[in-house]
Design a protein that fits this description.
By secondary structure, the protein is an alpha+beta fold. Helix 5 packs across helix 7. A hairpin with a 5-residue loop joins strand 9 and strand 10. The chain is built from 18 helices and 16 strands. The N and C termini lie far apart (64 Å). 38% of the residues lie in helices and 20% in strands.
Length: 488
């Protein structure tokens, strides 16, 4: 038996949103290296600065490197009849399987995780990350955080474990736990296998074709299988009612959430309880103290309350609150308490009346500007295929429409890029949450174009917006105001 020990470097953490920048495959029989393949890859997207700092791989290094499609055939031939081995194997395998699938190639091979095996072979270690584990075992890794260096370190680790416990025991130790699934009587394995491992929406349908349940997923196939898990899935009675599974790919989580909300509003599926009762559980609120000075807080929000700036996640509220304090020059200490700070450059050193006036004005401005929704935006996100973009049009806090296109024209008009959608409460909640996160630089994979409000028949983005969009793509973490690309 032969083993392909693999390591990759990428532009990010998931194959849906990131690309491979470097790959190394070392083939071994457990005793000696038989073959080796290593190359940089041009990911077709800009490499984030944080990734460059970690790996040393920058845009200039990959500019003349092959794209994945150039090596796909050779890589598939190298891997297709071997055991796929990696440290934390699901990460490397998911990227390579996804990239091969986009090139029309399927990879279904046994997998072995050296991190999982090492916990059995070398119990009691402080950490099982590749670097720390190898250090504790006296394995030196040259060129750490590069595909070749990490692959070579994994080869030595693999050979050591192979020599200690043998092939059969190592496979047992490294085996990934397989969940037990009970498929509905009317759903066969071929139907499940045909589901895509991509973002989108899925529907469980009754014998009459009526939707019983609608859900969104980052990975449709994986999420559907979770419903059929024998321990945590649907009940036997529910499984009996499912006669068909349909799906719609979305390209991005944002688009999937909107499609799901519209489908629930339209069909009102029997099993969708949570989706029928939209609720933003948290809010940024301001309140006066006894001396009339305002304070800020990210707090829980009562159902039906209109107080503050609403969010579905507490982490989003807290992140936005920190951004407000920084961008509007609010004293961080005085924003939360009566204590204030001792910095002479801060308004805390002013007289009580002057300090209160400045402090309250800044908080009022921050709350007003953050709450504003009387603007129109195009949000561009990942499409259902590599050359496609998803387009979502938001105006005055409402989702006006959504769609997909392969080319964004120089003067994009939202009326021609999207299909109009019904204005529903859940879509407004989703759009508001995503828009604030995008503006705060929390979702760099989404691109934002701000459109001046005009009559519908005149609304479009002027020509210079295209140049601004390119600037935004190259610098996705600019400040909240400059990040929203302004039309002329």
């Amino acid at each position: 038996m032969q083993y392909a020990i693999v390591d990759i470097e990428t532009t990010g953490g998931t194959p849906q949103d990131s690309r491979i920048t470097e790959i190394c495959v070392v083939v071994t029989d457990g005793y000696a290296v038989l073959n080796r393949f290593e190359t940089l890859l041009n990911p077709g997207v800009s490499i984030p600065i944080g990734i460059t700092q970690l790996t040393g791989i920058d845009n200039s290094m990959v500019a003349d490197a092959p794209v994945f499609a150039d090596i796909a055939g050779s890589l598939h031939h190298l891997l297709h009849d071997k055991v796929f081995v990696a440290h934390n194997v699901n990460f490397d395998f998911s990227f390579i399987q996804s990239a091969l699938k986009q090139c029309g190639l399927q990879l279904q091979v046994p997998r072995m995780c050296t991190a999982r095996a090492a916990r059995k072979v070398y119990p009691g270690r402080s950490s099982y990350s590749l670097g720390t584990l190898c250090n504790s075992l006296g394995i030196h890794i040259n060129n750490r955080h590069r595909a070749g260096g990490d692959a070579d370190g994994t080869v030595i680790l693999f050979h050591n474990m192979f020599a200690e416990v043998g092939a059969d025991m190592l496979m047992q130790y490294a085996g990934t736990r397989v969940r037990q699934h009970q498929l509905p009587l009317h759903i066969d394995h071929a139907t499940v296998e045909s589901l895509p491992a991509s973002p989108g929406v899925y529907h469980f349908l009754s014998a009459s074709g009526k939707p019983l349940y609608t859900g969104k997923a980052i990975n449709i196939k994986k999420r559907v299988l979770q419903h059929f898990d024998t321990k945590r899935g649907k009940s036997a009675l529910q499984l009996e009612q499912i006669h068909q599974v349909s799906f719609e790919e979305s390209g991005s989580e944002f688009m999937a959430l909107l499609i799901e909300a519209e489908a629930i509003e339209r069909n009102w599926p029997e099993w969708n309880k949570a989706g029928k009762t939209p609720h933003l559980k948290f809010a940024i609120v301001s309140y006066p103290t006894a001396n009339g000075e305002f304070r800020l807080q990210a707090a829980k929000r009562s159902r039906g309350s209109s107080m503050g700036i609403a969010y579905s996640r507490l982490t989003d509220a807290r992140s936005t609150l920190s951004t407000m304090i920084r961008e509007f020059g609010i004293c961080p200490s005085r924003a939360y308490s009566n204590k204030g700070c001792e910095q002479t450059s801060c308004y805390c050193s002013f007289s009580e009346e002057e300090r209160r006036s400045i402090h309250n004005e800044r908080i009022e401005e921050a709350m007003e500007k953050t709450r504003e929704s009387d603007d129109s935006y195009l949000i561009l996100c990942k499409g259902r295929k590599r050359e496609e973009k998803g387009v979502i049009w938001i105006q005055n806090g409402s989702v006006m429409g959504r769609g997909f296109c392969e080319m964004i024209p120089e003067n994009p008009d939202p009326e021609y890029l999207v299909t109009r959608t019904k204005d529903i409460a859940e879509s407004r909640i989703i759009a508001g949450a995503f828009l604030r996160r995008i503006m705060n630089g929390m979702l760099p994979e989404y691109q934002l174009v701000a459109i001046h409000s005009r009559p519908m028949d005149e609304m479009h983005v002027e020509g210079e917006a295209a140049n601004a969009l390119n600037a935004f793509q190259n610098n996705p973490r600019t400040s909240r105001k400059t990040q929203a690309i302004q039309a002329i």
